[in-house]
Amino acid sequence: PLMNHDKLQVAVTPVFVQKGNYVLLNVMKADVLQDVFSVVWKFNKKDVLVRFSPGREPTVSPAYTGRVEFSVNDYSLKVKNLQEADSGVYTARVTGDIQEQTEYNITVQVSAVMFLKHFTQTSILRCRSSDSCNLTVTCSTQDSHISSTFRCDTKTCSQEGGEQSEVTTSGASLHVYLVDGSIICNHSNQVSWTKDIEMTEHFCPQHAGEIVFSVGLIIMVSAVISVHIMEKLKKHK
């Protein structure tokens, strides 16, 4: 996008950075500027990060000491250990024979490893104790979540309503779907990607028939033993 600042047509460059990393911001066309008087880097149009005039040492804002590095050769700015609060517009204004302005719209994103998966406890208990059930799965991240329902029986699960997906305003996406007997939650953004997998056999009562057979067998054997003991007691008396 183009923004008008004091009749300057400024192209804003979007940049996505993973939380905790650094970003290097360059001044466009700095190599063609002559007789530079001053360079100023700002954050969100108001907070001054660095001021510099040739022949003098650059002045760094105390709030950013140790977190920014300024190059007196090409006027670039390196911002380190970026946090979510550092998301915003970074502006460089170079004043000389002509005035050059550069803008970056920085978005700091949390890594997708923050991804979580949640199976409701009620659904799990119901699935493990009955021949069929509805299993509710919720996939969530720090800024969004999505839910889907799976119908499970003694062998497998099927997804009611088909695959579910969601895309946030920041471009991150969540996707929950069923593949080869596995429930998969997928999360991605511009800086990372991850997924979590859960086998549906953990929730399907596949051995329900075997349990009933085993209980019946135990009862039958116990009855036979009891009759045998009773006969022994009678003979002894």
Automatic annotation (TrEMBL):
Location within or outside the cell: Membrane
SUPFAM superfamilies recorded: Immunoglobulin
GO cellular component, one term: membrane
Gene3D superfamilies, sorted: Immunoglobulins
Pfam families: V-set (PF07686)
Transmembrane segments: 211-230
Span of domain Immunoglobulin V-set: 14-110
UniProt KW keywords: Glycoprotein, Membrane, Signal, Transmembrane, Transmembrane helix
Primary localisation category: membrane
PANTHER family: IMMUNOGLOBULIN V-SET DOMAIN-CONTAINING PROTEIN, SIGNALING LYMPHOCYTIC ACTIVATION MOLECULE
Protein name: Immunoglobulin V-set domain-containing protein
Source organism per UniProt: Dicentrarchus labrax
